[in-house]
């Protein structure tokens, strides 16, 4: 199963307790940036005790949420049927506690349990953080070597290796010192004058010992020389064969390259023809659409011309009206200017006349006083009437102005109504034209539109069917991979049954459902135990496990019958079965099996029920709260713990198979149908254009109708204003008539009073008036008191300003209308220009399209033929490359063996020099360094076994004679020699022992490293080819050691050849290529030491859609559990489940949403 779920409490952005999961085989963690996705990976890292430098925090205390005082993370992991809970708790002091299944343990035991599930804490073989891909891709060779040491576990022997190396060096050094001291004693013994018989015997034994050691050394050198010669011969043979294969590879590579170029050329030509054909189809479709549109375009142009002409006519009428008003205003201005000139003359005359009577002013004033005394009351009445007349004149002028304004407004409103009616008529013409065009074009494309809709519906149906088929193909490929593993299990079980009598077989082979309807339910209840193997005892199980480990076969679970205990059934199950009658039965009651397997079946199906439907299952588990596991007949499984799993899909039934080839053929047929539908749609593309045109016309008609509706409302409002204005005009004219009648009455009264006053004035002013300037006193007084000139002058300036402003406004409006008319006339001229030829012949285009179609067909056939030929040649090329790799590997192994033999020869010669053994050389005296090819082995007669036995006897004699020599020796040289010799032999044995121990550690470390390296290298080549395979090429990748004898001392080089590119190191690749290479390496480590789950953090950031699709296909086909943090829909849409992470803005904390896609 892998990682089941994660429980976090107060960890980083998570406040309170959160359950993340359950996790399926392929789960994606999604959410916006900053929501807390990567904190889930930090939680796993923290829980398993990985270093703080990967947690994005300075210390463990910094992982606690700022609102809380402690934090904890619990992981529930299942591996090979064993489920464990790992928990780490940290308090505010930074102190951590570790728990396994709620038991408080120390860190060492916690780490041991974690690594026991293949979760390597130092190597982090199950985690890939952000940036790890680039970091691994940029590693130098020595860094890659350390990565392999961590993954293989050989790094655990590093300290022991270095310690043994130091011990060996120390032992050799001490042995050399003793040898020098022994040599010095021997020299003194040789210089002694008296030699006893015992000393002579002792010396002869020593000399004989040296001779035997010499012969033994020569035997060892001869044997190693023979082995070296065999290896040299093998290397020469392999190199010759490798050279021949390389020549074949070079030749085949040229042929492959030639075919690849040929295929690329044919593909290029095919795509060129296809592009030309597509372009020609577009041209034909456009011309067909244009043929249908041409008529409508002409009608549209005619309507636009009529509209423009009507608008020009309307604007010309408006210009004429405005020009008439300008002429009227100018005439009015001219009349006002004449009146003003007359007024100025009258004012000059009045002033001149007043100046002429200035001398008589005093006389006139005296007489005026007399007149006032005589006619004061009449004068007062006249003033009163004059005031009334002034008021009436003001009212008259106001009413006249109002009547004038109302009449002008009436004319303006009527002009606007006329203008709006003209615009409404134009709009009505436009609406009618659009409606006629729409009806006519809809009638023409009606049949083609129905066919186009059928094609769209059919294309949608085919695409849905194609999506379903692609999903089925991916599912079946993944299922076939699982079935392949099951086939390996079956063959392994058969082998074990032949070797060990206590092996009975798989559980699924030992049971049979009593009825076919129980098959799915039993498959779900048995689960992974359906492939478990039943054996008689634990001894048989251990023998099988050792055999599987030795042969490196598949993983298997064994169920020993003797070790399984019978347990009592939970109380209440019998009551449940009786309550529901035949709708509920025990799982063990639905199978037939041999009686000797009763304990196993009872163990596997204990407290597990099969029910008829989901309602009964829910009632048992949730309604009654019975702690049993229940499965329905269609595979819906409710665990005793409460969670529910949907298991009714076809993939769970072991008796059903899918035909992948049939699905692939069906997919090909659907793709052909989709291509045919698209061609037909392209032929009818003008229908879509016409529909768009009709829709555009409908929108235009709707807009014009809205405009016409607004015009009707506007006209109605203007007519209402005209009626209101007429009413106001009538009222103003009536008021003006009343004012004029009142003014006539006042003038009559004024006339009577004026006559009476004039009689008095004539008598008083006789002799003064009349004169040359004034006829009467009244005329003089009126001229003197006149102030109307200033008022009239101000009124004149005001009227003149208004008229000039109105004339300027009208002239600007006329200028704007003339400009609009020019634009409209230019538009009419443009519309009258006929563009293109509506009756163009399309037969030439159709024939050209048929020629291109035939040419594309021929190119496709040539491409498929060349691709088939290329596949055959490429397979041969791959076979040669594989053979070349095997030969190169053999050469490497021979070179490594040769280096080891050379080292042994060197050690043997060093030993000979140390023991002063003279090595015989052929044809010369041995001086200095000796080559093994120069050594003379002709004197060897006895076997090495005889020599070793004699050497043992001599050593015993030397030891037995040592006391006699010590007694008889005066200066103690012999005694000291014996002591030094014994110490020297002991140190030599210690040096040899240290060397053997060092070589053993070196061998173990090398073996562990090479075992990992070779398996990963093999898997890397396969996986990288799978992830980079295209129709015509594929990538290649391999790892190379810089030192094959001690690989951990030097680097590992990672070489790749992306498709259609040359070999290069991984750190020299682009971002996407490097990501694919590193992921291939990480997936390859899974083959060597599979972890229960893998957690990746946005490793797809540098990948395009094609590479993401390849990664998804690989993950789906894999049996491992993958949990990916990603932002790409093209990846997470294929997951079995989604874990959504979002940030709650109110609590400022991360929240979790889980969605199971497989349900």
UniProtKB/TrEMBL annotation:
In its UniProt entry, what is this protein called? Chromosome segregation ATPase
Q: Which GO terms describe its cellular component?
A: cohesin complex; nucleus
Q: Does the record bear Coiled coil in its keywords?
A: yes
The record's subcellular locations are:
Chromosome; Nucleus
GO term, biological process aspect, one? cell division
Tell me its family: Belongs to the SMC family. SMC1 subfamily.
The family database entries (CDD domains) matched by this protein are listed as: ABC_SMC1_euk
Q: Pinpoint the SMC hinge domain residues.
A: 501-621
Q: Which PANTHER family match?
A: STRUCTURAL MAINTENANCE OF CHROMOSOMES PROTEIN, STRUCTURAL MAINTENANCE OF CHROMOSOMES SMC FAMILY MEMBER
Q: Which UniProt keywords apply?
A: Cell cycle, Cell division, Chromosome, Coiled coil, Mitosis, Nucleus
Q: Which residues form the signal peptide?
A: none
């Amino acid at each position: 199963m892998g990682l089941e779920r994660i429980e976090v409490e107060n960890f980083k952005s998570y406040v309170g307790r959160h359950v993340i999961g359950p996790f399926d085989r392929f789960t994606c963690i999604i959410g916006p940036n900053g929501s807390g996705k990567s904190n889930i990976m930090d939680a796993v890292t923290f829980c398993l005790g990985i270093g703080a430098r990967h947690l994005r925090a300075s210390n463990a205390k910094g992982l606690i949420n700022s609102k809380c005082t402690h934090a904890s993370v619990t992981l529930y992991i299942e591996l090979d049927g064993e489920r464990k809970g790992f928990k780490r708790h940290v308090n505010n002091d930074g102190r951590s506690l570790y728990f396994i299944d709620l038991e408080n343990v120390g860190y060492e035991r916690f780490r041991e349990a974690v690594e026991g599930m293949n979760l390597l804490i130092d190597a982090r073989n199950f985690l890939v953080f952000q940036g790890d891909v680039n970091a691994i891709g940029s590693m130098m060779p020595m860094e890659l070597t350390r990565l392999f040491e961590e993954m293989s576990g050989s790094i655990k022997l590093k300290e022991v290796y270095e310690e043994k190396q130091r011990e060996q060096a120390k032992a050799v050094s001490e042995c050399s010192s003793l040898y020098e001291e022994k040599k010095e004693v021997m020299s003194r013994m040789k210089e002694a004058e008296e030699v006893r018989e015992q000393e002579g015997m002792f010396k002869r034994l020593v000399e004989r010992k040296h001779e035997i050691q010499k012969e033994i050394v020569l035997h060892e050198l001869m044997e190693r020389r023979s082995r070296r010669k065999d290896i040299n011969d093998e290397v020469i043979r392999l190199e010759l064969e490798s050279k021949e294969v390389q020549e074949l590879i070079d030749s085949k590579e040229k042929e492959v390259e030639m075919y690849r170029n040929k295929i690329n050329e044919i593909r290029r030509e095919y795509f060129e023809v296809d592009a030309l054909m597509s372009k020609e189809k577009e041209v034909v479709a456009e011309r067909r659409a244009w043929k249908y549109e041409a008529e409508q375009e002409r009608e549209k142009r005619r309507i636009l011309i009529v509209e423009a002409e009507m608008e020009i006519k309307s604007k010309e009428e408006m210009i004429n009206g405005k020009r008439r008003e300008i002429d009227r205003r100018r005439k009015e201005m001219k009349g006002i200017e004449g009146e003003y000139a007359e007024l100025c003359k009258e004012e000059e005359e009045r002033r001149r006349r007043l100046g002429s009577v200035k001398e008589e002013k005093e006389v006139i004033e005296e007489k005026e006083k007399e007149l006032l005394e005589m006619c004061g009351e009449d004068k007062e009445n006249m003033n009163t009437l004059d005031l009334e007349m002034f008021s009436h004149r003001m009212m008259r002028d106001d009413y006249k102005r109002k009547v004038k304004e109302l009449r002008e407004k009436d004319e303006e409103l009527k002009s606007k109504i006329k203008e709006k009616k003209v615009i409404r008529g134009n709009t009505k013409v436009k609406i009618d034209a659009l409606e006629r065009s729409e009806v006519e074009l809809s009638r023409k494309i009606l049949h083609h539109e129905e066919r186009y809709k059928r094609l769209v519906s059919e294309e949608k149906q085919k695409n849905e069917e194609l999506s379903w088929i692609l999903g089925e193909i991916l599912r079946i490929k993944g299922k076939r991979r699982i079935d392949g593993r099951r086939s390996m299990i079956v063959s392994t079980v058969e082998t074990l049954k032949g070797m060990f009598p206590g092996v009975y077989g798989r559980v699924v082979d030992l049971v049979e459902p009593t009825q076919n309807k129980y098959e799915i339910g039993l498959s779900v209840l048995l689960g992974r135990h359906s492939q478990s193997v039943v054996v008689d005892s634990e001894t048989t199980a251990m023998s099988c496990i050792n055999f599987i480990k030795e042969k490196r076969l598949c993983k298997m679970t064994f169920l020993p019958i003797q070790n399984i205990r019978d347990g009592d059934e939970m109380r209440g199950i019998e009551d449940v079965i009786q309550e529901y009658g035949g709708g509920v039965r025990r799982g063990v009651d639905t199978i037939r099996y041999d009686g000797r397997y009763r304990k196993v079946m009872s163990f596997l199906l204990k407290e597990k029920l099969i029910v008829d439907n989901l309602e009964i299952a829910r009632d048992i588990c949730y309604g009654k709260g019975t702690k049993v596991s229940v499965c329905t007949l269609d595979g819906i499984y409710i665990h005793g713990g409460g969670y529910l799993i949907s298991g009714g899909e076809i993939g769970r039934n072991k008796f059903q198979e899918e035909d992948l080839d049939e699905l692939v053929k069906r997919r090909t047929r659907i793709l052909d149908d989709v291509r045919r539908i698209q061609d037909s749609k392209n032929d009818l593309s003008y229908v879509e254009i016409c529909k768009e045109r009709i829709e555009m016309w409908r929108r235009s008609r709707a807009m014009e109708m809205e405009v016409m509706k607004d015009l009707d409302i506007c006209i109605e409002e203007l007519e209402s204003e005209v009626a209101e204005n007429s009413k106001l005009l009538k009222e103003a004219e009536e008021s003006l008539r009343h004012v004029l009648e009142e003014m006539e009455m006042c003038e009559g009264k004024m006339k009577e009073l004026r006559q009476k006053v004039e009689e008095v004035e004539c008598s008083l002013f006789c002799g003064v008036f009349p004169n040359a300037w004034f006829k009467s006193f009244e005329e003089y007084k009126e001229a003197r008191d006149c102030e109307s000139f200033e008022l009239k002058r101000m009124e004149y300036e005001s009227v003149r300003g208004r008229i000039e402003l109105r004339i300027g406004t009208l002239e600007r409006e006329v200028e704007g209308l003339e400009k609009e008319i020019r634009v409209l006339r230019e538009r009419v001229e443009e519309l009258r220009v006929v563009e293109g030829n509506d009756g163009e012949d399309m037969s030439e285009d159709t024939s050209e399209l048929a020629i291109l179609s035939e040419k594309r067909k021929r190119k496709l056939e040539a491409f498929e033929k060349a691709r088939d030929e290329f596949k055959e040649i490429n397979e041969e090329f791959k076979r040669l490359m594989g053979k070349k790799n095997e030969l190169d590997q053999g050469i490497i192994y021979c070179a490594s063996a040769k280096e080891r033999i050379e080292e042994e020869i060197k050690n043997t010669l060093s030993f000979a020099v140390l023991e002063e053994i003279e090595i015989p050389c052929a044809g010369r005296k041995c001086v200095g360094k000796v080559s093994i090819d120069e050594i003379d082995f002709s004197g060897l007669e006895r076997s090495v076994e005889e020599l070793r036995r004699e050497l043992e006897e001599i050593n015993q004699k030397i030891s037995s004679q040592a006391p006699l020599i010590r007694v008889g020796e005066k200066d103690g040289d012999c005694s000291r020699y014996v002591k030094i010799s014994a110490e020297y032999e002991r140190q030599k044995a210690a040096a040899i022992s240290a060397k053997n121990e060092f070589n053993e550690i070196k061998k173990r470390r090398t073996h562990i490293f090479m075992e990992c390296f070779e398996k990963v290298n093999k898997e890397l080549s396969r996986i990288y080819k799978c992830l980079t395979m295209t129709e015509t090429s594929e990538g290649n990748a391999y790892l190379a050691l810089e030192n094959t004898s001690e690989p951990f001392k030097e680097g590992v080089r990672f070489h790749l050849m992306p498709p259609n590119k040359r070999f290069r190191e991984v750190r020299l690749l682009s971002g996407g290529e490097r990501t694919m290479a590193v992921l291939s390496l990480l997936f390859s480590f899974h083959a060597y030491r599979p972890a229960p789950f893998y957690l990746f953090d946005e490793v797809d950031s540098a990948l395009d859609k094609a590479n993401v699709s390849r990664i998804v296909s690989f993950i789906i086909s894999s049996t491992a559990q993958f949990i990916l943090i990603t932002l790409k829909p093209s990846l997470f849409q294929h997951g079995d489940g989604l874990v959504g992470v979002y940030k709650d803005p109110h609590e400022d904390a991360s929240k979790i949403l889980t969605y199971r896609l497989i349900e």
